[in-house]
Amino acid sequence: MKKFFSDLYKKANTGIWPIVIALAFMVVGAVSVYQSPRSLTAFLILMATPMILYFMKMDMKVKVFIGLMLIIVILPVLGIRNIFYLEVIFQMAVFAALALGLNIVIGMAGLLDLGYVAFYAVGAYTWAIFGSKQLSLLHSIPGAAPADAPFALAPQWFWLFLFLGVGLAAMMGILLGLPVLRLRGDYLAIVTLGFGEVIRVLALNLDKPINLTNGPQGITPIQRPPLPPEGILQFLRTILTPIVGHPPTDAEFYNVMFYFIALIIIGIVILVATRLEDSRIGRAWTAIREDETAAIAMGVPLVKMKLAAFAAGASFAGAMGALYAANRTFVSPETFSFQVSIGVLTMVILGGLGSIPGVIFGASAVVLLNIQILQNFSLYLSDLRQSDKIIPIINFAWKDLSNQLDPAKYQKLVFGLILILMMIFRPSGLIPAERRQRELGEDKIEEE
Amino acid sequence: MALLQTNEVVKRFGGLVAVNKMTFSVEKGRIVSIIGPNGAGKTTFFNSLTGIYTPEEGKIEFNGQSLIGLRPDQVASAGIARTFQNIRLFGSMTVLENILVGMHVRLKQNPFDILLRSKHFNDEEKESEEQAKELMAYVGLKNVGNELAHNLPYGGQRRIEIARALAANPTLLLLDEPTAGMNPNETEEAIKLFRRIRDDKGITILMIEHDMRVVMGISEHISVMDYGEKIAEGSPKEIRSNQRVIEAYLGRGAAVAHERKQ
Amino acid sequence: MKQIAENPVYKFFLFPIGQIIVFSLGASLVLSLITVLLAYIFKFNVTDFDLVERTLLILPQVVINGLTIGFVYSTIALGYTMVYGVLEFINFSHSEIFMVGGIVGIQLMAYFEHIGVLSTMNEYLVIGLAIILAMAISGGLAVTVERVAYKPLRGAPRLVPLISAIGMSFFLQDFVRLILSLTTGEFNVILPKFGTFDEFWVIAIPAMANPLRIQIKSAIMVGVTIFMLVLLNFLVNGTKVGKAIRAVAQDRSSASLMGINVNQIISITFLIGGALGGAAGVLFALKATKLDPFSGFFPGLKAFTAAVLGGIGNLTGALLGGLVLGLLEAFSASYLGIFTNGAFGAEYKDIFAFAILIAVLIFRPSGLLGETVGQKA
Questions:
Q1: CA of C364: which chain A residue's CA is closest?
Q2: % of chain A beyond a pLDDT of 70
Q3: Are residues B174 and B72 in the same domain?
Q4: Same domain for B130 and B100
Q5: pTM recorded for the entire structure
Q6: Closest CA–CA distance from residue A174 to any residue of chain B (Å)
Q7: Are residue B261 and residue B196 in the same domain, yes or no?
Q8: Which chains touch B (3 or more CB pairs under 8 A)?
Q9: How many domains does chain B have?
Q10: How far is C164 from chain A, CA to nearest CA, in Å?
Q11: Most buried of the four, A235, A426, B41, C13, by CB within 10 Å?
């Protein structure tokens, strides 16, 4: 049976076939999502396309072309038709960037950081405080804000704060790292966890003595970066109206814009991560992960390199935090709980520690699981609850099922199971990291 | 002036004095060995030299620079490279990458070079890859550059470790039991390699070794440690007939027997 | 002198009790003195009332609160420190073992209430039964968790079992929530009202304005934990099993060469640690009166901090660390607000523990009393 499939895969993976399969998935997926925007199956078919592109053998140019078609044309169009998909993909991008950042810290350098969400929070609150009315409310009690308070900065400032978020988060990474990076691995885990909680508690309580974070209520509204000029929007409206069936609204344009910003950032993040990995710095990180004593004896300055890993990882989170704050126009301490840190850790572990494609896959899979599959399962259960069906053998009526049982709220269970199972059965992840193979001009002895 | 000079170095662990007043020197361009029974403090002394441990007392000078208080990476940058008693390669990195890590101290690429893939970066990477290939050939490894280090056989791993240490272009190479676990053929090869390293590259070698064929075969100077102290030093010939050394190794009875035989 | 030291009554009863008393008094005294000193320093900050006077007024009560919660932390910390001693691994899911103990205890009381016997039963018997059941279930759960999630990973790099333990912690939180939701439809469990232990003993102290008020349940908490600490001391230092545990903690492979069944000893360690956690859970529940599947997290983290504070792997250290941490928490909760004139208040008491943890790890990573296990290279 296994042989049958592997033979089949080998056959399918030669010549023109991969291109045909990729295109088929993309077209079938796109058409079925277009037809029935609510179908999960349709969306999964479409999302299989990038996987096929990644894994199957085909010309690089073709891969890039199909990939660009998918992300620049097809997804935004479908996204305007059903805004939910843009949201899913936006979240995938945000979490993929977070996971890539954490991957540098834990996957490459081997430092278990359980408070990663803190850097995300720093980025988010940086823009939240300056991009909202909060600065003029520093001396008012949360909830009692005057409605006519002015925004402190114009929305264009977002772009600067995106970079500031990166810098501040990196600085926090270094500040936290300086004292704690000398600690051994398991202590580091607990201390970073504590740091994550400290940041959350600060966000929760820094509504006094001056009201910096507005406490548990969070900060809203936060400004979004401005849309492109009206001329461009008008042009896009004329093109898109016949395709999506209605003139796109500003809200939809905002979503598409955030989708593209997220894409650009994730592109940069991937570029930075791959380039760092394949350099003196990346090699030093891996050496530290493998054997600290040997690494330092080879002249790798441990603390400096660990700080670099912390700062690099944190900076990705900072960027995504600022983006997230603008996208939601709202931040609150609840968004930055320990659970998010573990969620990102789960993505890294699921995909494969140290494996950049693996981590992106892990992030996509976990996001999909969280906001689509579990959600659908919840809907299915609530449908059952409203029906008169019973479970046959044990004679249990579905309508007696507790309302508390809402799979969408059992993310911790899912994260926990993934972590345990992966550690026991596949600690290197679903798409394990591979070392770069170089052209060394050596005669490779063929094994077969 | 000696390349490496230690003066009354003391390293304690709690009440245990692992290294006691070691005064010791290595002349430039020589092959020097430290021998002694198990637990004599040889590796501890090595670790004190390389900054893994900080000695409580004494001086260590290398090339006229004090090594006391330097971190291991700073010691490495100063020009001392080492191998480990129980091989410590970066197992899941390729052989080539292991050697590239060894070059860490002399690569100049900064984060901007790395992120922008500047000409400087590309040139340096290409050059270091070439050098790594040469080093692999130098230690007698072929077609293994892309293998993961932990997939290599034992003898091969020993060689990579030496290549990795050489990659830093050290002035002094410390080898901690470099032929342990090798068969006679491999040992023979290793001896030749050490000679070549000294002769071609002019690198001074200081090694800890148990195999007397190796020690007597290539050392120009030998120091003997027992219970953390230096009990003898001299040429191989002198050491071979030194009473205290024989006692330390074989016990008093054997020493007396040895005397009688002579 | 040596004879006294070897006398079992002294060794297993008087000595540990004496140690507990010395630690409690010593830690209370030191922290009180520091607080009073701080009160003098911050005096300028407060103009409405005399800061020193106010500080002294509530001091005895704060000490009592701190010791009460401190003993609970000590008991949980023992679970962390025992496992760390034997396996050199942070059993992250211990906080959930503790939570399960608390919930099991409350559920038993709720069951008694449900069948209508709670009000007629002796309240101490109820608590005793709840503790015993919680110890059994938490102990069993700890052993199961070890078998399922940690044992297959023995010998893997250090972070691997740690990540598995984090996963287990998350899994258990939601799994308990799932079970509670399915069986009772509600995942908050509330301690039923019974007995008289909510009442206070009021002790008038001549030199002080306010009489000392000790809640009966605080006394129960302290009494039970001291009893268990003494029992544990006997178990570890006076029995064959304890000897085996110490041997495994020293050197696992040598212990196994000496004919000790290492797997069995590890299971027993988890059993003891889990049982202690379960008992602590019930005691904590008495105080908190309401638990949910997530209530283990913070006490667990603090207990871990306590273990590190005292010196991880060191049983006496866990006791001292727990007491110090409990006191520090009580002091920060009561005085932070007063000293800073309301700018920072009790809401920072949770992160106070982390601040201490970070400080300890930076300045004295081996803890107050030193670790008994070093990192093996």
A1: A183
A2: 98
A3: yes
A4: yes
A5: 0.91
A6: 16
A7: yes
A8: A
A9: 2
A10: 5
A11: B41
